[in-house]
What does this fold into?
Amino acid sequence: MTIKQLSVFLENREGRLEEVLNTLKEEKINIISLSLADTSDYGMLRILVEEPERGKDALKAKGFSATLSDIVAVTLPHKIGALQETLHVLYEAGINIEYMYALCTTTDEAAIAIKPSDLDKAVKALEAAGAHFFDGLFK
Amino acid sequence: MIWNETKECMSRDEMTALQSKRLVKAVNRVYHNVEYYRKKMQEVGVEPGDIRGIEDIDKLPYTTKDDLRDTYPFGLFAAPQSEIVRIHASSGTTGKATVVGYTRKDIDVWSECVARALTMAGIGRGDTIQVAYGYGLFTGGLGAHYGAEHLGATVVPMSTGNTKKLTTMMKDFGVTAIACTPSYLLHIAETLEADGDIPNIKLKAAICGAEPWTEQMRLQIEEKLHISAHDIYGLSEIMGPGVACDCQYHKGLHVYEDHFLPEIIDPKTLKPIAAGETGELVFTTLTKEGIPLIRYRTKDLTSISYDKCDCGRTLARISRFKGRSDDMLIIRGVNVFPSQVEAALLEMGETTPHYMMIVDRVNNLDTLEVQVEVEERFFSDEIKQLESLTKKIAHTIQQAIGLAVKVKLVEPKTIERSMGKAVHVIDKRKLV
It folds into this structure.
């Protein structure tokens, strides 16, 4: 019910992001979605790739600080209020959202990736509410 | 003007005789009152009787900061606590402070030395002086304060921190002299300049110290403020500010040799070297009662001249400092060793031991950035976690060195690994 996200610590230096992307390209690892959080000194690149483990190893071999984190992704129908309803489930369960970003899908549905404060609790609450977990495109 | 002509203009023979007499007394004092020194002397087979004058100085063992640390806090004191009237302390290399104690007579001697320095800068009883060194355990504030009072000047104990208040009082009180770090004085000058207040002040002289500065910076201060700026040298182990100061000719700093016997040694061979050659400055306190130190290695590199100065003083002069024989940095007047930062990081365990200290001077104030590599296992994909880690590292370093730092997390293995001695400091301040 959870998926592996590849997180990469990036210093704010020219070319660092490009080097990450180049490494993945050379390893022929497809990127499904990404989000980039920035601070004044560094950035945090969060990516969903088809082969997370291999992606992590490839990046670490190039000296990047890369880790895998478990997150949860759910699909959402294209209708008003769909996101709110999903988040309401987490809110009711007393779960905080550390970060969240939209996912790229090839279907008619939208999807979001969520890092909840309590992953197990979040999965259970979403399951109980009948949410559809997203696991498309992973090899 | 010369504050104490008898002492400051003595012939070399008279000075040598006075120093010799005082050295014998000082050696006896430490031998009989300080167990640590007695053992140190016994180890090299020297007894007080072997020291008949300053020509015998090289028979005596050296003292280093490590000795002060090993005997923390009061192990090198040569006077009972009932005679100690003041304690000062500076940060040490392992978090332990270097502690010094003063008897009433020590405070008198110190005040006399600072009064001599102020007189060299053309400051007298008619002057109003702002002491803008930090007051407290640091010797700068109280040292300059007591000396200025001894001189008979009007003292405004500003301490540091509020530049606006300082410049306002400088104008309103008709302040004529200031004692502070040179970088702070430049900052004050720029504040005055920005407010268009340079024509509204009566400042004529400054004595600056507690950090290294260049002749160019001294001239820049003189030009900006239309004053005479003087370099005052000192270190808490020996006394505090007022061990040496330059006169109106600015051809080196006159050492108050009747109280502090200077030597220049080769920091590698530890052998004395000839006058005029650059080496490490070593001091023996000749009159100190609280914590007399024998051949204390300052680690400051300089050369010495015994030529008579145009000002009339015969006191030996040390040249502007040429660096240090260790890796100590002076940042905003605070002594910092890279090893302190390293120890703090290792103790935390959340970073690799690889770090880089970037020292810079922004708007004439020193800044310290510490770049650290984050250990893989403490790495988080949450910015919140990384920020709290950054704060924790900054706090730990600050506790260790007593100075606010900016911590920057960097990618693993990006801090340069050097072969042999690692480079941990990039000092961007343009000095020397």
The mean pLDDT of chain A is 91. Chain A touches chain B through 20 residues (CB under 8 Å). Strands of chain A lie at 2-11, 31-38, 42-49, 65-76, 97-103, 110-116, 132-133. Chain A is about 30% helix and 40% strand.
